C-alpha cells in the first residue's frame, strides 16, 4: 500500500473511530462519563448489544456520502471528459443520505433501488446502496434533514443553484456541515488550495448557511488535503495556520471571519500549554457549533500528533458533541499517521469498516 493510500485510509477510518467512540457518550454529562468509565473517561469501544459492533453515527454516514460525491465527479470526468464542481454531486449524494433516513433498507430495496441508479433524481450512490447499516438512524442532525428536504424542493422546482453559500436557506452554524466534509481534501482533484477550501465550504453550506457553519468546512478540507498530499513537509501547525489564513482571505469581509481566526488561534495556543485537556476543551466550547467542534479537534490533533489514541480519547471525553469532535479529530490524526499506524484495537469491531476502507481506496484510486 502506498503512503498516500495509507493516509487516505487513515483519515476516513480515523474519523469513523472518533465518531464511534464519541457516539457512545454524545449525550452524557461529564459526571456520568467519568463515573461510568473512570477518571480518564471512555478508552475503548463499547459494543452495542444488538450488533456487537462499535456503531458509527450520522457523522460517518454523511462523510461516506461526501466521499462518494468525490468519486462520482472523478468518474464522470474520466468517462465524459467533463465534471461539475464536487458540491453539485454532494448535493445529490446527501439526498441519498436523506433517503436512507426516510426509509428502511428493506423499503429502499423494494422502491428506490429496484430500478437501479437513475441520475439525477434517484439514488446515485450505488456503492453505498447495499449497506443496510447506512439506513439506520443514528441521531441524525435535524438541520441536515430539514435543509436537505428544502434543497430537494428547490431541485424539483427546477432551480439550479450554482453556489450554496449564496443560496441561504437557514442560519445554522451547527457542526453538521464541517463534520462531514473531510473527503473533499482526500482526493487530489485540484492543485489549487483555494479551490479545495471553497469546495469544503460549499459542501457544508448545502445544509449550514451561517458563515461559521461553512467557513469551518473550508479549513478542514484544506487541512486534510495538505496533510495527505504534503509535498512541502509542512508541520501540522503550519498547515493549520495556512488553512486559517486561506479561509480569512477567501471570506475576507465576512462579519464572522475574525471569530473563526480567533477560535483557531485559541486551539493552537492551548495545545502548547500544560493544563489538562478537559480544562482546555472547556475554554474552546462544547462542539455543538461548527467553530467550537473544529477548534476542539484542532487542539487535540496538535497536542497528540503522534498519538492517535491519546488524541481521539481526549477529543471525545467531554460533555459536548463528542462524536463530531471525535470524528473531525480522527480525520486529522488519521491522515497524519496513516491507517497502518492506528492501534489494532480500533480496527476490530468497528461497524462497516470494510465499506469505509473500500471507499478510501476508491478516493485514492481516483486521485491524480
Ligand atoms: Mg453524530
Mean pLDDT: 95
Enumerate the spans where pLDDT stays under 50 for 5 or more consecutive residues: none
| Distance between the amino and carboxyl termini | 16 Å
The CATH architecture category equals: Orthogonal Bundle
Structural class, judged by helices and strands? Answer: mainly alpha
CATH superfamily: ADP-ribosylation/Crystallin J1
Oligomer: single chain
Based on Cα principal axes, name the global outline: globular
Strand content: under 5%
Q: Which bin fits the share of residues in helices?
A: 55-70%
Using the CA coordinates, give the radius of gyration: 19 Å
Number of helices: 16
Number of strands: 0
CATH class placement: Mainly Alpha
The profile of the biggest β sheet is: none
* Succession of helices and strands: HHHHHHHHHHHHHHHH
Work out the count of structural domains: 1
CATH fold topology: ADP-ribosylglycohydrolase fold
Bound molecules: magnesium ion
Compact description:
It contains 16 helices and no strands. By secondary structure, the protein is mainly alpha-helical. It has a single domain (3-365), classed as Orthogonal Bundle (ADP-ribosylglycohydrolase fold).
Q: Could you give the topology of this structure?
A:
Elements: H1 3-23, H2 30-37, H3 58-80, H4 86-102, H5 105-110, H6 126-129, H7 142-156, H8 193-205, H9 211-228, H10 236-250, H11 257-270, H12 277-284, H13 290-303, H14 308-316, H15 322-337, H16 353-365
Helix pairs in contact: 1-3, 1-14, 1-15, 1-16, 3-4, 3-16, 4-7, 4-8, 8-9, 8-10, 9-10, 9-15, 10-11, 11-13, 13-14, 13-15, 14-15
Amino acid at each position: 500500500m502506498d503512503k498516500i493510500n495509507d493516509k487516505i485510509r487513515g483519515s476516513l477510518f480515523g474519523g469513523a473511530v472518533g465518531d464511534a467512540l464519541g457516539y457512545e457518550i454524545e449525550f452524557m454529562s461529564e459526571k456520568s462519563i467519568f463515573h461510568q468509565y473512570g477518571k480518564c473517561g471512555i478508552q475503548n469501544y463499547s459494543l452495542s448489544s444488538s450488533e456487537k459492533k462499535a456503531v458509527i453515527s450520522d457523522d460517518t454516514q454523511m462523510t461516506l456520502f461526501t466521499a462518494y460525491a468525490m468519486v462520482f465527479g472523478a468518474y464522470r470526468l474520466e468517462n465524459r471528459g467533463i465534471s461539475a464542481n464536487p458540491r453539485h454531486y454532494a448535493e445529490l449524494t446527501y439526498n441519498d443520505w436523506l433517503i436512507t433516513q426516510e426509509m428502511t433498507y428493506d423499503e429502499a430495496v423494494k422502491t428506490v433501488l429496484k430500478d437501479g441508479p437513475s441520475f439525477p433524481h434517484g439514488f446515485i450512490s450505488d456503492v453505498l446502496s447495499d449497506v443496510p447499516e447506512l439506513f439506520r438512524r443514528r441521531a441524525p442532525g435535524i438541520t441536515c434533514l430539514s435543509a436537505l428536504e428544502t434543497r430537494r424542493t428547490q431541485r424539483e422546482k427546477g432551480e439550479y443553484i450554482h453556489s450554496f453559500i449564496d443560496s441561504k436557506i437557514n442560519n445554522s452554524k451547527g457542526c453538521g456541515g464541517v463534520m462531514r466534509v473531510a473527503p473533499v481534501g482526500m482526493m487530489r482533484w485540484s492543485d489549487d488550495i483555494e479551490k479545495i477550501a471553497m469546495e469544503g465550504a460549499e459542501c457544508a453550506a448545502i445544509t449550514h448557511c451561517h458563515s461559521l457553519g461553512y467557513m469551518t468546512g473550508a479549513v478542514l478540507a484544506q487541512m486534510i488535503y495538505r496533510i495527505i498530499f504534503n509535498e512541502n513537509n509542512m508541520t501540522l501547525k503550519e498547515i493549520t495556520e495556512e488553512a486559517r489564513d486561506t479561509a480569512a482571505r477567501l471570506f475576507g469581509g465576512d462579519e464572522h471571519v475574525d471569530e473563526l481566526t480567533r477560535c483557531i488561534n485559541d486551539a493552537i495556543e492551548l495545545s502548547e500549554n500544560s493544563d489538562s485537556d478537559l480544562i482546555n476543551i472547556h475554554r474552546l466550547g462544547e462542539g455543538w457549533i461548527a467553530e467550537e467542534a473544529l477548534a476542539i479537534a484542532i487542539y487535540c490533533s496538535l497536542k497528540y500528533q503522534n498519538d492517535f489514541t491519546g488524541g481521539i480519547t481526549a477529543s471525545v471525553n467531554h460533555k459536548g458533541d463528542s462524536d463530531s469532535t471525535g470524528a473531525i479529530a480522527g480525520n486529522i490524526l488519521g491522515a497524519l499517521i496513516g491507517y497502518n499506524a492506528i492501534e489494532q484495537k480500533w480496527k476490530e469491531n468497528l461497524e462497516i469498516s470494510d465499506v469505509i476502507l473500500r471507499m478510501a481506496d476508491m478516493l485514492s484510486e481516483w486521485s491524480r
